[in-house]
């Protein structure tokens, strides 16, 4: 079997390249999105007899809760109603409620950076819209986050949103690589299954 694959290495490689090109080309048909990342510091205000380690763990739990809160329709509504919002809201107006929240959960995410009391906020959108959307999301979290976890917490922006230099979604390079691997696997399977029967190799 391995000898057969080795004898048809060129064929397998060519098919890998062709599928990689096809995968990358298909990726270009999807909407291009950039990402913007910001960071907020979560501070527990309850200092009565609590050691720093416990405070850090409490901040992590709060951050985990906030990351889930950011996915909710209530939080999305606060972002949309923010007085400082300058992003394009028309992208949402023609969608049903279900599609709006699904789109929101794909484009806005929070992730706790454990051991640091920092939360990373990542927003995906168009090149022109990603920065204003990320700024509004970050501001809304720092302004209204305490409403979801109680008043004994402060949320402070420590890093303003920074936009990626390149397209983040779709990941054309990754899709091309996966296409190359898939092409090689499929062509290898074809060689093993049919070459022996058709050509007597």
TrEMBL record:
Q: Which GO terms describe its cellular component?
A: plasma membrane
Xref: InterPro entries: LPS_length_determ_N
Q: Please, which domain of life does this record's source organism belong to?
A: Bacteria
Record-annotated Polysaccharide chain length determinant N-terminal domain positions: 2-81
> Per UniProt, what is the membrane topology?
Multi-pass membrane protein
| Main location, first listed in the record | membrane
The portions of this protein that span the membrane are 12-32, 172-192
Q: Where is the protein localized? A: Cell membrane
Q: Which terms are listed as keywords in the entry?
A: Cell membrane, Membrane, Transmembrane, Transmembrane helix
Pfam families membership: Wzz
The entry's protein name is Polysaccharide chain length determinant N-terminal domain-containing protein
